[in-house]
Hints:
It contains five helices and eleven strands.
Amino acid sequence: MTATAAGAARLDLLAEALAAARAGDWAGAERVCDQWDEIDAANRKPPPTPLQAALWYVSLGLKVFPLQPERKIPFPGSHGVKDATSDAALVRRWWAVAPTANVAVATGHLVDVIDVDGLTGVLSLDRGVLAGLPPTVGRVKTPRPGGCHLWIEAMGSPCRAGIVPGIDTRGLGGYVVAPPSHVTTSDYNGFYRWDEALTLPRGGDAGLR
């Protein structure tokens, strides 16, 4: 399937998922999300290593730090997002010690992130809840069925949980799990992947997926 055909198929599936969610058919919506995953699996490139991705984020001026492998939380004894840096040499040292560490990007610095938590969040998006916010500069598909992260230019605002059902924001003092991190929980298991390439005002364009 070509990239254009895959994109069209995703749009069709998104429409189906929204129709099912509006009708309260959550099982049907999740089945559609599974079809989305199958299209991704057939068209995706091999993911970069965590170090390659972390260095690429740093090259765009973003700040990163490592998370525990397969998890969304910092390493014990670290300072979490307070350790976030754009120092490539420090990034190399971190991932030399823990090559499979997941990658976190600090928000509130160049970018904020709208966290769409599964199908409930998708339905809120469909109601136009993001009107007035900056346009997206990238979109990440998360392992949670129907979940995604919408990356936007930083607004200078703090993190907010539950601004509407299924949607949180990550801003000043926060962070987001970034591709190609892999997370395993009791509810889901999978990679974070770019669904729409990251393009920052300074000209970065994500070839990493």
